[in-house]
Write a structure and sequence with these properties.
This protein is of the alpha+beta class. It has one domain. It is built from two helices and eight strands.
């Protein structure tokens, strides 16, 4: 049976469990419609820390899915780094990037961060994890 797209997924990183969701939304900005992808991680067990929201908002030189030709969950710079936020490895890379900046899963407050500030670091981490080493590595 296929997974329901709105049901939280599970991720284990550094011995801690998280539930995570990905949502697409719209807002009216700059006299037009603006698309957002929001990745939310919930430290488990519930109540041990506040949620972490990583938000990607479309803008000049940036894309988020809003229909063809983009795939669901794809975010990136038009001429640069990109990730698919449906991939657990991409979620882990973003979690590692925000953790390297000092976020702790035990913080009680909800944190919302601009995903674009993490994208290049997370995409580089993801590329290293998925590219096999070459003969010169």
């Amino acid at each position: 049976m296929p997974r329901h797209p709105k049901r939280p997924r599970r991720l284990v990183a550094d011995g801690r469990t998280y539930l995570w969701t990905l949502r697409h939304s719209h807002s009216m900005a700059d006299n037009g419609r603006s698309c957002h992808e929001t990745l939310t991680l919930y430290p488990q067990p519930s109540g041990t820390g506040g949620p972490l929201r990583i938000v990607f908002t479309e803008g000049p030189g940036r894309y988020v899915p809003g229909g063809a030709p983009l795939g669901s969950g794809d975010v990136g710079f038009v001429r640069g780094a990109c990730l698919n936020l449906h991939e657990p490895g991409a979620v882990r890379a973003l979690l590692d990037a925000v953790s390297a900046r000092g976020w702790k899963p035990t913080e009680r407050r909800m944190l919302e961060i601009d995903g674009w500030t993490l994208l290049e670091t997370a995409a580089a981490t993801r590329a290293r994890a998925t590219d096999p080493p070459g003969p010169n590595d």
